[in-house]
Amino acid sequence: MKALKLFAVLASAFAIASCEPTVPGKTELGPLPTADYTMTYIDSNNVRLESQSTGEPFMYQWNVDGVGTFSGEVAEVFIPKMGVYNIEHNVFNQGGHATATGQVEIFKDADFVCAGSAEYLTDCTARTWKLAPQAGALWVGPLDGSQTWWAIGATAATDRPCAWNDEWTFNSDGEMIYDTKGDIWAETYMGVAADGCQPESVLTGDKAPWGSGTHQFEILPGAGLNGEDQIKVSGLGGFIGLPKAANTGEVSSPVSSITYTILSADDDGTTRTMEIEANCATLLWRFTLYSE
Predict the structure, then answer these.
(1) CB–CB of 125/288 below 8 Å?
(2) Would you call 116 helix, strand, or coil by DSSP?
């Protein structure tokens, strides 16, 4: 009788085990990455952050308190003000993510020489710029600039009022403040169904950094291909003109920095205008801005 009871218990256990679900082809996520990085000074106000993380990360993110968010295995960060800044480095792999933290100390404010393009852009204090209400204020063409593939028409300001009310304010402390005025010209690469004016709130998830915010900028004197001055905008999502025009090509997600070449500048005593160009690897985008 005892043997019969034991057989019944074993049979029940076997039945339970045989009912456990199985997942054919199931793969393990793998171990977490290990986060680590090095920091070197490029000069008194620029630092190079380079990931030394292991575990085959596929995404790298940097947060520098009070300065901005950056992406990529290497990030070069401009920090204009003296102080101690916390650094958070996040890396992600198939198994999850890991974080390394540290600090960087900046020992002096960045020198601001109010001359040339810096004076023109900031008025030595702060100056606000908008897209110019004229034909060609948005322009795209080949790398040699030999032809126009597309350019906005003369009625741009009324056709896209949500883009022509955007403001970029450049301060002499190295900040660029972008203000959408609550709405944006949204395109399908931002995740919307159709191109058109939309409230800024449509920028969600990884597109959110394209909204209103504060970024950093610096003037690169004579750094252009033909000796022109350049404007480098730093901080995730910072841009001038159109968000998608990055130096790596037309992008569908925010990038950490974009450099623009100043092609021309004119001041008639009342209004300043400026044409800038983004080399997008396979094409050129040009933007005409004005400031009163």
Answers:
(1) no
(2) helix
CB 198 within 8 A of CB 184: yes
CA distances from 91 to 20, 51, 62, 271 (A): 36, 9, 9, 46
Helix (H) or strand (E) holding 15: helix 2-18
Domains in the chain: boundaries: 37-106, 116-291
Element (H, E) at 164: helix 161-164
Give residue 20's pLDDT. Answer: 46
Q: Assess if CATH 2.60.40.10 describes domain 37-106.
A: yes
Going across the sheet that includes 74-78, the strands are 37-41, 46-51, 74-78
Average pLDDT over residues 113-135: 94
- DSSP character for 203? -
pLDDT of residue 67: 82
This model's pTM is above 0.85: no
Amino acid at position 183, single letter: D
- Model confidence at 207: pLDDT above 60: yes
- Compute, in degrees rounded to 10, the torsion defined by CA atoms 80, 117, 231, 236: 40
**Helix (H/G/I), strand (E/B), else coil: 266:** strand
Q: What share of the chain is helix, strand, coil (3-state, %, to 5)?
A: 15, 40, 40
Element (H, E) at 109: none
Q: Phi-psi category of 249—alpha, beta or left, where left has phi over 0 and alpha has psi -120 to 50?
A: left
